[in-house]
Amino acid sequence: QVQLVESGGGLVQAGGSLRLSCVASGSIFSIATMGWYRRDPGKQRELVAYITNDGRTNYVDPVKGRFTISRDNAKNTVYLQMNTLKPEDTAVYYCNAVIRPGPTTPYYDYWGQGTQVTVSS
Fold first, then answer.
1. Neighbours of 70 (CB within 10 A)
2. Beta strand ranges found along the chain (DSSP E)
3. For residue range 62-96, what is the model confidence (pLDDT) as tens digits?
4. Which of 21, 48, 70, 117 has most Cβ atoms within 10 angstroms of its Cβ?
5. Is the predicted pLDDT of residue 42 greater than 90, yes or no?
6. How many CA atoms does the CB half-sphere of 74 hold within 13 Å?
7. Mean pLDDT, to the nearest integer, of 25-33?
8. How far is the C-alpha of 29 from the C-alpha of 19, rounded, in Å?
9. For 66, which DSSP code?
């Protein structure tokens, strides 16, 4: 059983910062890509950023230069540092990880339960 648990969401004023964390636990043999997605009410979930197991990163245009994704492989943890937040960043943020539970199993997609980020103007 693999579990992803996010933390760090909350309410912040525009221009402020938040740092999200996501810890993967349980039966984990290896983790490939880890990432963050978000969903506004009434919209589809969209990619925010991802990081590969060798540290390569990718960001969607609206967050480039403001958000930074990082990971600690020893702790099975991924972070999202969000600076200069805008009201349009308001959403539920979800952690995603592509994990191989055992040495002979394939990789599977796992998701956290989501954490609310609200940016007031």
1. 15
2. 2-7, 10-13, 18-26, 30-39, 46-51, 57-59, 67-72, 77-82, 91-100, 108-111, 115-120
3. 999 999 999 999 999 999 999 999 999 999 999 99
4. 48
5. no
6. 0
7. 97
8. 27
9. T
